[in-house]
Amino acid sequence: MSSLVSWVTRSEFWRSIFRHGLPDNPKDQSLVMTSHFLTHIHPVRVKKKALRFTYTYGLGGLSLASFLVLLVSGGLLMFYYVPSVDRAYSDMLTLMDDVAFGWYIRNMHRWAAHAMVALVFLHMIRVFLTGSYKGPRKFNWVIGVLLLVLTVLMSYTGYLLPWDQLAYWGVSVGTNLAAYVPGIGETVTVLLLGGRNIGQGALLRFYVLHVFMLPMVMAFFMAMHFYRIRKDGGISTPVDEHGGGQ
Amino acid sequence: MSAEQKPERKDCPKEIKRRDFLAGLGFGGLGILAAQSTVIGGAYIYPRGKALTSGAFQVGTPDQYPEGVTYVDGKRVFIVRDAEGLRAVSAVCTHLGCTVNWVADKGQYECPCHGSVFDAKTGDVSGGPAPRGLDFVSLALLEDGSLQVDPTVPVTRSQVLKA
Fold first, then answer.
1. How far does B97 lie from chain A, in Å, by closest CA?
2. Is B60 left (phi over 0), alpha (psi -120 to 50) or beta?
3. CATH code matching the domain that covers B54-155, chosen among 2.60.40.10, 1.10.3720.10, 3.40.50.2300, 2.102.10.10
4. Which end of chain B is more exposed for a tag (fewer CB within 10 A), N or C?
5. Where are the beta strands (DSSP E) in chain B?
6. Which of the listed CATH numbers 1.10.4160.10, 1.20.810.10, 3.90.76.10, 1.20.120.1200 matches domain A56-231?
7. Whether complex ipTM tops 0.95
8. DSSP code of B135?
9. What residues form DSSP beta bridges with B148?
10. Alpha carbon B67 to chain centroid distance?
């Protein structure tokens, strides 16, 4: 048995995946961090005070977690939802009443969406209050603002999809607000709605934006956001008694 | 590149280096491609034709509409009959697009969302945040005797259908 284990762990295949020995010594322990795809986002060395939970409350990570929940539950919803004015509302009702655990998946999507907007806002407040938007993290703050706008747009486009009265009037008022923008307002509204009224064109456009365009753009900026955290020297740290925070 | 390899050419007033020429060609091409993609992409997603203009629907016959204001259910339009004839008034509030109500007791249109008030006769704003009066829209009598409304075609109040 042990010879089988050692045969497996010595194989080229195994060693191509695990490129270091058991992490029971400092060298292999740091190799675990640097050679692994998921952990390489952390610096090899992390300051102890950067780990204090009450400094960040993990709000950025929780935002990412809710995004992943939304991605999975949203993908599942797409199996039962057709973005057509004749079917959208009844498909939503079918999901709630007939599909096994449909209510569960849909509510998970709904609550995670609400949670994500709240978490992104709280994350932003934390970054602001700890002064983490200052150099060298200025550019990451800019990406963060973009991600906040994208999060709100995701919420807004998803709002129309159930095709009920709340959705219709919410989007009606929203797109009419957009029409007040000087110069380009009318054009933007027609572009968004695919016509002059909220109908099939608008439902399809909001759907495509919601399930493909916006998530794609978001994933790109999220990747950039995380990369910059690492490049800017990890998360900011509180000022210590010698005034030496970063 | 050393000086020996690059002979002086005084006959050519402005020498363009091969590297700059090729870079210009490459980036210029990319620029044209980007501009082209923007124009094509923009034109592609901008709705046209039927998506913008075909809003016409039929609302029954003229004798269904008595003197006064009648709301056409689900169509967001009022058919108004007075001594002069018939007119169609859009029920879409000019403020943020809610459907206005005809309040017969007060003789005015009222928006439930933000309280805009419109005059019964002219459709002009008499209160609330609406920037302009309700729209009069195209109303026509078809050959088979039915009325056709097109809310995408605005008309003036002077346009009356005698039917």
1. 6
2. left
3. 2.102.10.10
4. N
5. 57-58, 68-72, 77-82, 85-90, 101-103, 108-110, 117-119, 125-127, 136-141, 147-155
6. 1.20.810.10
7. no
8. P
9. B58, B140
10. 31
Query: Measuring CA to CA, which residue among B153, B87, B73 is closest to residue B120?
Result: B87
Please, which residues have CB within 8 angstroms of residue A144's CB and are 6 or more apart in sequence?
Answer: A123, A124, A127, A133, A225
Joined tokens for residue B67: 């003197």
Say how far apart CA A118 and CA A108 lie, in whole Å. Answer: 15
Rounded Cα distance, A140 and A153, in Å = 20
Nearest residue of B to residue A196 by CA position?
A: B52
Chain B nearest C-alpha distance from A106 (Å): 28
What one-letter code names the amino acid at A135? G
Q: Mark out chain A residues that contact chain B at CB-CB < 8 A.
A: 169, 172-173, 175-177, 187, 190-191, 193-197, 201
> What φ, ψ does residue B136 adopt, rounded to 5°?
-90, 135
* Residue-range domain boundaries for chain A: 56-231
> For B114, which DSSP code?
T
Strand partners, B85: B82
Residue of A nearest to B47 (CA): A194
The per-residue pLDDT string of chain A (246 residues; one tens digit each, 9 = 90 and over) reads 789 999 998 899 988 888 888 889 988 888 887 787 777 777 767 778 778 888 889 999 999 999 999 999 999 999 999 999 999 999 999 999 999 999 999 999 999 999 999 999 999 999 999 999 988 899 999 999 999 999 999 999 999 999 999 999 899 889 989 989 999 998 999 999 988 888 899 999 999 999 999 999 999 999 999 999 988 888 887 766 555 555
| Residue B45 distance to chain A (closest CA, Å) | 7
Element (H, E) at A206: helix A200-208
* Segment holding A214, helix H or strand E: helix A214-231
